[in-house]
Amino acid sequence: MPIITPNFNFAGCCEEAIMLYRKAFNARIGCVLRYSDANVSDWSKELTLEQLNYIYHAEIFIDNQRIMMCDNMDVELIKNTALSLTVIFDTKDEVKKAYDILKEDSQTIYPIRSTTYSSCMVVFIDKFGFRWGLMTEQTIR
After folding, report:
1. Residue 46 pLDDT more than 80?
2. What is the chain's mean pLDDT, rounded?
3. Cα dihedral 112/27/104/81 (nearest 10)
4. Among 42-46, 54-58, 104-108, the least confident range
5. Residue ranges of domains in the chain, CATH in brackets
6. Of 24, 59, 77, 104, which sits with the fewest C-beta atoms within 10 Å of its C-beta?
């Protein structure tokens, strides 16, 4: 059975994102591989010393859900908010705590509120340009 795994691409700030997401979601870091650790035949251009320190491949786990991440230097990154990741928490306090960590330099689309389907939800674009939904599924917690 195929597995769908989100893969976030950054332009030199992947390590910062890993640390922020780890803190916000209590994520576990599975691996971090820098360009300097990889086989140089994997890419076709000369890299600067700074670029050799960029993240070639990383994996974090939010509970058991894997997200792959990297600093991609092959194409210009274009931000797109049509796709988002939704993280479902057990309580309002967990939603608020994660949002408090992620909201710096973000753009709020829907502020924290309760809805017909969630006692607490917020939708925003984080400082890296990724759209997130944080919510509970309960209507009374």
Report:
1. yes
2. 94
3. -70
4. 42-46
5. 7-71 (3.30.720), 84-136 (3.10.180.10)
6. 104
User: Helix 14-25 crosses helix 92-102 at what angle (to 10 degrees)?
Assistant: 160
Q: What does the pLDDT average to over 79-107?
A: 95
Q: Across residues 70-75, what is the average pLDDT? A: 90
Lookup result for tokens 């251009």? 45
Residue type, 83: L
Using CA atoms, how far residue 64 sits from 26, 29, 59, 61, 70, in Å, is 12, 11, 11, 6, 19
In this predicted structure, the answer to whether residue 141 has a pLDDT above a threshold of 60 is no
Token reading at 60 = 């974090």
End-to-end alpha-carbon separation of the chain, Å?
A: 35
